[in-house]
From TrEMBL:
It comes from Desulfoluna limicola. Its cofactor is NAD(+). The keyword NAD applies. Gene3D superfamilies: NAD(P)-binding Rossmann-like Domain, UDP-galactose 4-epimerase, domain 1. Residues 6-321 form the NAD(P)-binding domain. It is an enzyme of class 4 (lyase). Its EC number is 4.2.1.46. This is dTDP-glucose 4,6-dehydratase. The lineage of its organism: Bacteria, Pseudomonadati, Thermodesulfobacteriota, Desulfobacteria, Desulfobacterales. It catalyses: dTDP-alpha-D-glucose = dTDP-4-dehydro-6-deoxy-alpha-D-glucose + H2O.
Length: 357
C-alpha cells in the first residue's frame, strides 16, 4: 500500500523547496500537495517535479472542510506537514482578514480533520505545523528566543500564527494528538516571492529601481537558507517528540541595511556594471513598518542537542547562490509578478512608500 503525506501550501516558497528536497532524497512516500494558489503560490515553482510519480497536486483550499475530509478518506494520510498560510507581515497590516481565515480557521480545519482521522485508528502518526519565530515578539540588543520564551506577537500575521500554534498545542494536551511545531527565523533562497526583503532588493537593484529600507535599516533578522530549513523540518517530522516545539535558526544575524549593502555589491559585481556607480545610491529610507519588531534571534540548541540538526550552508555563500538564482530565473520572476500581485500593489501602494516597484 502507498504511504501518502499531505503537504499544504507546497506551491509557495518554503513548501516548494521542501517538496523538491524530499523528492531528491531516497524518499519512498507519496506527496499530495494541497494548495489554493494564492498570489504567493505558483505551479511553476514545482514544474520540474510534475513528472515524478511520487508527486500529486490538488488545487484546493484548507478552508474547504468537506474537501479535507474527502482527501483524508481517499488517501488515508499517515502524516501532514502544514505550510499553507498568508505569510507577509506588510499585507497583514493592510488587510488582516485573510490571515485570520487561512492561518487560524484553515489550520483549525486541517487539525480537526486530521485529529478525527487519527482517532479513528487510520494509521495517522504525525501533524507537523510550520510556524515562525515572530510569535515570540521582539528582542532587544541581546538574548535569543528559546522554546520557553512567552508568546508576544506584534503584527496581525504573527498573532494569527501564534493563535494557530496554540490550537495545535491544545490538541496535543487535550486529546493526546501527535503533533509537533517548528518555529523558524527568516528564510531566503530560490522561489521566494519578491515582496520579501531579499528578493525584492535583488530585483530592484537589477532593474535600477529605488530600494525601500524601513526606518533606519537597523532592525535585525536571523537568516536561514531555505534548504537548511527543509532539512530541519524533515528531521523533526521523522524524529521529533510528540507535543514538542523546536526552534529553527541559522545563527546569521544581520541588520537590514547590511543585507541591502551586501546585495547591492553582489548584484553590481554579477552584472559587471561599467559606469562605476554603486547601486547603494538607490537606497531610500522610507516610513517604518508599524509595530516593527526590532530584532529576532533563535536559540536552536534543542534541535541540535536532541536531534543532531545543524545548518549546512554559510550565509555569504547561500546569499550569493540566491542572487545567481534570481538573475538566471527571470521567467519565473516575471510570471509571479504579473496578474494578481500587480493589482494588489497598484491598490495598496501609491509609490510614496515603496518607490517604483
Ligand atoms: P508563501 O506565502 O510563499 O506560501 C504560502 C503558500 O500557501 C502558497 O503556495 C499559497 O498559495 C498557499 N495558501 C495560502 N492560503 C491557502 C489556503 N487557504 N489553502 C491552501 N493553500 C493556501 O509562504 P512561505 O514563506 O513559503 O511560508 C510557508 C510557511 O512557513 C508559513 O506557514 C509561514 O508562516 C512559515 N514561515 C515562513 C518563514 C519565511 O521566512 N518565509 C519563516 C518561518 C516560518
Ligand atoms: O521571522 C520569520 C518571518 O520572516 C516569517 O514568519 C514571515 O513569513 C516572513 O515574511 C519574514 O517576516 P519579516 O517581516 O521579517 O520579512 P520581510 O522580508 O518582510 O522583512 C524583513 C525585514 O526587512 C524587516 O525588518 C522589514 C524590512 N523590510 C522589508 C521590506 C519588504 C524593509 O526594510 N524594506 C522592505 O521593502
Amino acid at each position: 500500500m502507498k504511504n501518502y503525506i499531505l503537504i499544504t501550501g507546497g506551491s509557495g516558497f518554503i513548501g516548494s523547496n521542501f517538496i523538491r528536497y524530499l523528492l531528491s532524497e531516497e524518499f519512498d512516500c507519496h506527496i499530495v500537495n494541497l494548495d489554493s494558489l494564492t498570489y504567493a503560490g505558483n505551479p511553476l515553482s514545482l514544474s520540474d517535479c510534475e513528472g515524478d510519480d511520487r508527486y500529486h497536486f490538488i488545487h484546493g483550499d484548507i478552508l474547504d472542510r468537506g474537501l479535507l475530509e474527502r482527501l483524508f478518506e481517499e488517501y488515508a494520510f499517515t502524516g501532514v506537514i502544514h505550510f499553507a498560510a498568508e505569510s507577509h507581515v506588510d499585507r497583514s497590516i493592510l488587510g488582516p482578514e485573510a490571515f485570520i481565515d487561512t492561518n487560524i480557521k484553515g489550520t483549525f480545519n486541517l487539525l480537526d480533520v486530521a485529529y478525527r482521522h487519527w482517532k479513528n485508528g487510520k494509521g495517522f502518526s504525525r501533524f507537523h505545523h510550520i510556524s515562525t519565530d515572530e510569535v515570540y515578539g521582539s528582542l532587544g540588543e541581546t538574548g535569543a528566543f528559546t522554546e520557553a520564551t512567552p508568546y508576544d506577537p506584534s503584527s496581525p500575521y504573527s498573532a494569527s500564527k501564534a493563535s494557530s500554534d496554540h490550537l495545535v498545542k491544545a490538541y496535543c494536551r487535550t486529546y493526546g494528538f501527535p503533533a509537533v511545531i517548528t518555529n523558524c527565523s527568516n528564510n531566503y533562497g530560490p522561489y521566494q516571492f519578491p515582496e520579501k526583503l531579499i528578493p525584492l532588493m535583488i530585483l530592484n537593484i537589477m532593474e535600477e529601481k529605488p530600494l525601500p529600507v524601513y526606518g533606519q535599516g537597523l532592525n535585525i533578522r536571523d537568516w536561514l537558507y531555505v534548504e537548511d530549513h527543509c532539512s530541519a523540518i524533515w528531521k523533526v517530522f521523522c524524529d521529533g517528540k510528540d507535543g514538542e516545539t523546536y526552534n529553527v535558526g541559522g545563527g546569521a544575524e544581520r541588520k537590514n541595511i547590511e543585507i541591502v549593502h551586501l546585495l547591492c555589491d553582489l548584484v553590481d559585481k554579477k552584472l559587471k556594471r561599467s559606469d562605476g556607480v554603486s547601486s547603494r545610491n538607490l537606497i531610500r529610507y522610507v516610513q517604518d513598518r508599524p509595530g516593527h519588531d526590532f530584532r529576532y534571534a533563535i536559540d536552536a540548541s534543542k534541535l541540535k542537542n536532541e536531534l543532531g540538526w545543524e545548518p549546512a550552508f554559510s550565509f555569504e555563500e547561500a546569499l550569493e547562490n540566491t542572487v545567481d538564482w534570481y538573475l538566471n530565473n527571470m521567467e519565473w520572476v516575471n510570471n509571479v509578478r504579473s496578474g494578481a500581485y500587480r493589482e494588489w500593489l497598484d491598490r495598496n501602494y501609491s509609490g510614496r512608500q515603496k518607490g517604483e516597484l
